[in-house]
Structure formats: structure tokens, C-alpha cells
Design a protein that fits this description.
The complex is a heterodimer.
Chain A lengths: L5 H34 L2 H32 L3 H36 L4 H28 L2 H31 L4 H33 L9 H4 L1
Helix pairs in contact in A: 1-2, 1-3, 1-4, 2-3, 3-6, 4-5, 4-6, 5-6
Chain B lengths: L3 H5 L10 E12 L2 E12 L3 E5 L6 H7 L10 E9 L4 E2 L7 H7 E4 L10 H11 L5 H14 L3 H4 L12 H14 L4 E5 L7 H14 L4 E5 L3 H7 L2 E6 L2 E7 H4 L6 H7 L5
Classes of the chains: A mainly alpha, B alpha/beta.
């Protein structure tokens, strides 16, 4: 059912759209950064760094909209949850933006080093694809307030964690075999870590979807027993 | 006994709660019009419970049952009971004197309605009706009531002034002082701030918080944010039914019933 105030409905729509627009930009940024790792395209890298500022601006704007609605409407129930979770989601998206910028910067360094060519392409590509899928699906779930696909995103995070652990084991064995690979090995590790963090933030956003729809905050559910 | 509907109210740690009153299967009729339909809930002692709902939902009717105001008009009929605890008196019982009920359950109305008397006499009125004549005792009780209503500092130098000379917010606090003077167990508020400006409103809301430790509060309000601010429990009523009763902080964040959600989020058609 719609609000009896059309204006209120529009304001909430505007907030939703601004979060999703921010999500769209972040998604495009991730695609560019992952491509930059493979190609080392310096223009692409420069674009990612430049656009990251736009992500920050969008967060400020979305938060401003959210605060204006709170001040004007004193929202309750699902509206209140939607607004609070939107603020949280933009925070996660902004962090994803930072991680992507880090990936792009590392892509630049990869370009300077010939070592680890195969590793960085194959391994980082795979974990990058996993994170990309999670980000896409979590944004779709947020747009449609779809609890089922939000649940799927949350379930997929452990696959990313496993993949990250596997990459780390691999890197350690390479670095032990040949200490000259340590420097570039660390770069690859940082890139993998940044991608793993992107997946964590995507998972957070999926949790907000569940909070909005069901009214229960699924974060840190193990704490439930002690905090009641 | 806790019925399933009360258990649904999700009130934590039921054993530790003390109840001041229990409404049991209350039905109320204005002539042939069935205004309240089988209402049951408990009023926790020293807490504020808010009744919210659209116009005509029965919230004011329910409030007025608590001090038998409906007795004043012919054709009104109660069924079921409102039991005062712990002494188990059904205040709807015909054998119970409504005057006695109103001594124990005070009421503050929408518009301040001081008597055309002095400030002092307004507050002393209920005590005099009770037969208190000792001047010192009256003065002490009036002072205590005015202090309880956060009005003493503003009026102690002009207790003999006519009550009408006070501002709207002060008049409403005077009415609260008048209600507090007889030491009621429950205080009923019928939209107590709808005629007041925001500053007077917030001072009445503060006051409601302050007096909770000595009196149990039931408040009807059209202002949902007010219900959210001042009450510990909220009951949402619609067309004479009690739709949802719950802890205020939960009801306004995650109502259990879709109808409650539609109402508090302004999706009410």
C-alpha cells in the first residue's frame, strides 16, 4: 500500500534510487578495476581513481536525502528500517569504492612487474568474478527487496573466503620457494584481500535487505543469545 | 492468568511485571452501536500505555470506560470488566460508585478545563470533596501536587489568582496537578497536548515521564510520535478492535500486524 502522502512516497523512491545509482557506479568501477588487473590499461586505472570521488559524493547526497526524510517525516516501521539500512548500505558501497581504488592502484604496480603473470590473472580473476557476482546480486536484491536472493548472497561469502585462503597458501609457497617473488607476491595478496573485502561489504548489504523486509537484524546472530 | 493475546504482546520477563489494571473481554455499546469489541489487555503499573488509531477506532471510548464517564449518558452499556489490581475491584460493576472510581482514576482532557476558581482552589477541590479541611494539610497537598505537575515555581507567588490567567500549557499542568492532588492510581490523558504549542507539549510530555513513578498512565493521542516518545506500551485500535498491543519501542520499529504497520507509516487509506 502507498503512503497517503505522495510526497513522502517520492522522497523514499528518491532515496532508493540514489542508493541504487551509487551501487551501479560501484559495480561498473569493480568491472573496470578487474579488467585493469588483466590488461594493465593505464587509462582505465586513471578512470577508476577519478570516479572513486564520484562515489563519495553520491554517498554524501544519499545520506543527506535520508536525513531530510527523518527530519520531515519521523518515519516508523518498514520506512524507518529502509532509511537506516540505506544509510548503512551507502557506507558499505563507499568502502567498496575504496577497495576498488586500491585494486586499481595495485593493477598499476602489477604492470611494472613481469612476475606472477599467470597467478595474478587466473587466481585474482576467479575471486574477482565471485565478488562481482555477489555485488550484482546484492544490488538486485536491494532493488527488489528480495530476501531469497539476499540469503543466497550471504551464503556465497564463504566461497570467497575459501578462495582467498587458497590464494594465500599458494602465494606463501611461491614466496618460500623463491624470495625474489616476495614483493610482487605481497601485491597479489593485497589485491586478493581487497576483493575479499568487497565481497564482505556485499554480504553486509544483503543483510540489510533482510533487516528491511523481515525486521530482524541478521548481523552477528551469534550475539543474540547473550544480548537477548 | 496471561492469555495468548497478552503473551503475543512480547512483554519481556512477564513474571517481574506488576499490573495496575486488567481489561477483560470488554465490550461497549452506544445504544445499538457496538463500539468496543472484546478488548483484553493489561496495564502495567507505573508505566505509560498509549492508545493510538484513526478517528472512530474506539480509543477515547476505551479511555472513558476507565473512569465510567459513559455513565453520564443513557443507553450506554458495558460488558466484560476492568479490574483494578491488586485489590481485584471491577470498576464497571454497577455496585461500584463511579465517584469512588474517579477518585482513584483521574483524567486530563484535550483542552485545559480549570474551574472558575483560584489556582489554589482548583488543586484543593478534589481534596475538599474528600472532606479535607485542615488548612495546613491542604496547603501541603496543593504544594506537593503543583510541584508534581512542575508548576509550583511558576505559580507559588500567585496562588490566589484566577486559574484562567495562566497560559494554556500552565492551565493543562494545573489540571494535571488537580488530578494528582487526590493521589490517583491511574491517570487518563485524552489527547492532552493537542491544544498546546510545541514547547508546552514537550513540558507535558516531560511531566508524564516524571509522574510515572507514582501513577500508572493511559494516554490517547493522535500524535504517533508522541506515543512513541512518552509510552512504554502501545495499543493500536481499529474499528473497535484491539489490533496489536506491544512494547512501544518494538511496535514502532517492527509491528507484528500489517494493519498497524500501514497506520504508523501513514499508509492508511
Amino acid at each position: 500500500m502507498e503512503h497517503s502522502s505522495k510526497q513522502y512516497e517520492q522522497e523514499l523512491d528518491e532515496l532508493r534510487s540514489s542508493v541504487l545509482a551509487m551501487g551501479g557506479l560501484v559495480e561498473a568501477q569493480l568491472a573496470r578495476a578487474l579488467e585493469a588487473i588483466e590488461t594493465g590499461d593505464s587509462e582505465l586505472i586513471a578512470a577508476v581513481v577519478r570516479e572513486e570521488k564520484k562515489v563519495n559524493v553520491m554517498q554524501v547526497e544519499a545520506d543527506r536525502l535520508a536525513m531530510a526524510i527523518i527530519a520531515k517525516r519521523q518515519p516508523a516501521a518498514i520506512d524507518l528500517r529502509q532509511i537506516v539500512c540505506s544509510i548503512q548500505a551507502t557506507n558499505d558501497l563507499e568502502r567498496i569504492g575504496d577497495e576498488i581504488k586500491r585494486i586499481a592502484t595495485l593493477a598499476q604496480q602489477f604492470q611494472a612487474s613481469e612476475r606472477f603473470q599467470t597467478l595474478r590473472l587466473n587466481e585474482v580473476r576467479h575471486i574477482g568474478e565471485l565478488a562481482m557476482e555477489m555485488l550484482k546480486e546484492t544490488l538486485n536484491a536491494f532493488a527488489r527487496l528480495d530476501v531469497v536472493s539476499a540469503g543466497e548472497v550471504i551464503g556465497r561469502d564463504s566461497a570467497v573466503d575459501d578462495e582467498y585462503a587458497r590464494i594465500m597458501r599458494l602465494l606463501v609457497s611461491y614466496m618460500m620457494e623463491d624470495p625474489r617473488t616476495i614483493s610482487s607476491g605481497i601485491d597479489v595478496a593485497f589485491a586478493a584481500k581487497a576483493i575479499e573485502r568487497v565481497a564482505d561489504h556485499a554480504k553486509n548489504i544483503a543483510e540489510y535487505v533482510i533487516h528491511i523486509v523481515q525486521g530482524q537484524d541478521p548481523r552477528h546472530t551469534t550475539l543474540g543469545a547473550t544480548t537477548g | 492468568m496471561v492469555t495468548s493475546s497478552q503473551a503475543r504482546a512480547a512483554t519481556p520477563a512477564v513474571e517481574t511485571q506488576h499490573y495496575k489494571a486488567e481489561v477483560r473481554n470488554l465490550n461497549f455499546y452506544y445504544g445499538s452501536f457496538h463500539s468496543l469489541k472484546n478488548i483484553s489487555f493489561k496495564l502495567e503499573a507505573n508505566k505509560a500505555t498509549a492508545l493510538i488509531g484513526p478517528s472512530g477506532c474506539g480509543k477515547s471510548t476505551l479511555l472513558r470506560c476507565f473512569n465510567r464517564l459513559h455513565d453520564l449518558y443513557p443507553g450506554n452499556r458495558y460488558e466484560g470488566s476492568i479490574v483494578l489490581l491488586p485489590d481485584n475491584v471491577n470498576i464497571l460493576d454497577r455496585k461500584v460508585d463511579p465517584i469512588e472510581v474517579r477518585m482513584r482514576i483521574g483524567m486530563v482532557f484535550q483542552k485545559p478545563n480549570p474551574f472558575p476558581k483560584s489556582i489554589f482552589e482548583n488543586v484543593a477541590y478534589g481534596l475538599r470533596v474528600r472532606g479535607m479541611n485542615n488548612k495546613t494539610e491542604l496547603a501541603d497537598r496543593v504544594e506537593a501536587a503543583l510541584k508534581g505537575a512542575a508548576l509550583w515555581e511558576e505559580v507559588n507567588h500567585r496562588l490566589d489568582d484566577l486559574a484562567f490567567n495562566l497560559s494554556g500549557g500552565q492551565q493543562q499542568r494545573l489540571c494535571i496537578a488537580r488530578a494528582l492532588a487526590t493521589d490517583p492510581e491511574i491517570l487518563l490523558f485524552d489527547e492532552p497536548t493537542s491544544a498546546l504549542d510545541p514547547i508546552a507539549t514537550s513540558s507535558i510530555e516531560e511531566l508524564i515521564q516524571d509522574i510515572k513513578h507514582k501513577v500508572t498512565i493511559l494516554i490517547v493521542t493522535h500524535n504517533m510520535q508522541q506515543a512513541a516518545r512518552v509510552s512504554d506500551y502501545t495499543a493500536y485500535m481499529y474499528l473497535g478492535d484491539l489490533i496489536e498491543f506491544g512494547v512501544t519501542s518494538e511496535l514502532f520499529v517492527k509491528p507484528k500486524d500489517k494493519r498497524t504497520e500501514d497506520y504508523i507509516t501513514g499508509r492508511f487509506g
